[in-house]
C-alpha cells in the first residue's frame, strides 16, 4: 500500500494550480511514459510516475506585454529547482515517505539541463527515465505545455495509472516473496 497516490496529488489545490499552469495533459503524458520506462527497466514505477507528473510544477509564466517571452524565460528560468522544492513540500504534506519524497524531488531537479550552464550531470537510471519521459512528449515551440485535456478525462487517466502502479508493485512483491 502506498502512502500517497497520484490521485491524492492530483486533488491537492497546490498541484491543481501548478499542473494547470504548465500543462496538465503534458504532465499526465510524462507520468505514463515514466511509468512504462520504469517498468521496462525494473525501476520504482511509483517514484517515476510521481516525478513525471510533477516535473514541471516549478514553471513561472514569463510574460511581457501579455505575451509569452521566450528570452525572458531562457534567462531567468529555474523551474527544475522550484519544481523540486514545491513537489517535495507537497509530498511531505500529503504524508509521503521522506526518502521517497527526496528521490522524487531529485528526479525533478535533474529532469533537464536547460537551466544549467553545462550539461554534464551524471543521472541515476530513475533520473534518466524522467528526462526521457519528458523528451518523449515534447513538441516544437513548447506546444506540449498548451495541449488541453478535459478535467474528467484527466482524473480518469490518473486513477488508471494509479491502478497500473498498484498492480506492478503487487507483481513485484509476489516475485520477491516466491
Ligand atoms: Fe516537461
TrEMBL record:
Protein's name in the database: Phosphohydrolase
Stored Pfam families: HD
All copies of domain HD, residue ranges: 23-139
Entry keywords, A to Z: Hydrolase
Residues in the signal sequence: none
Record-linked PROSITE patterns: HD
MF (Gene Ontology): hydrolase activity
